[in-house]
Amino acid sequence: MEKKKLKNVFIQGAISSDFIGTSIAKHQSKTSIGAHNIFLGQVRADTIDGKIVTAIDYTAYEEMANQKFHDIREATFDKFDLTCMHIYHSLGTVKAGEICLFVFVSSPKRKVVFKALEYVVEAIKADVPVFGKEIFEDQTHQWKENS
């Protein structure tokens, strides 16, 4: 796979099911693909100190984050036999139950997509400077800690 140029992975607000469905449909003509795997990160309505999270407000150092996403993408292509990969992350407010991260990997072989997807998602969580402020039902907020 040819190395790709730096791309903006950010989408304002939640990632819609229509966007996800369209992304999947676009791959039906790529007949060298034998398997896809998808990760959808969804905002949870966690209860923290007796308060329920109703949304997360995502911010990022966009230029740095896009470079990190690019580096992760290139490292994944170097490590795994993938046909293509797409990463999208929300910025702004995403309500509980809505999608904030969409990672889509494709390969000629099924076993590859499982390993590659886990590698990508773990690298994103560890290395990309995206920050979430949890918003509670009483409109108070706190910075989210990744686990």
TrEMBL record:
Enzyme class per UniProt: transferase
Q: Which InterPro entries match?
A: MoaE_sf, Mopterin_biosynth_MoaE
Its Enzyme Commission number(s) read 2.8.1.12
From the UniProt record, list the reaction(s) this protein catalyses: 2 [molybdopterin-synthase sulfur-carrier protein]-C-terminal-Gly-aminoethanethioate + cyclic pyranopterin phosphate + H2O = molybdopterin + 2 [molybdopterin-synthase sulfur-carrier protein]-C-terminal Gly-Gly + 2 H(+)
Quaternary structure, per UniProt, is: Heterotetramer of 2 MoaD subunits and 2 MoaE subunits. Also stable as homodimer. The enzyme changes between these two forms during catalysis.
By sequence similarity, the record places it as follows: Belongs to the MoaE family.
For this entry, the protein name equals Molybdopterin synthase catalytic subunit
Specify the taxonomic lineage.
Bacteria, Pseudomonadati, Bacteroidota, Flavobacteriia, Flavobacteriales
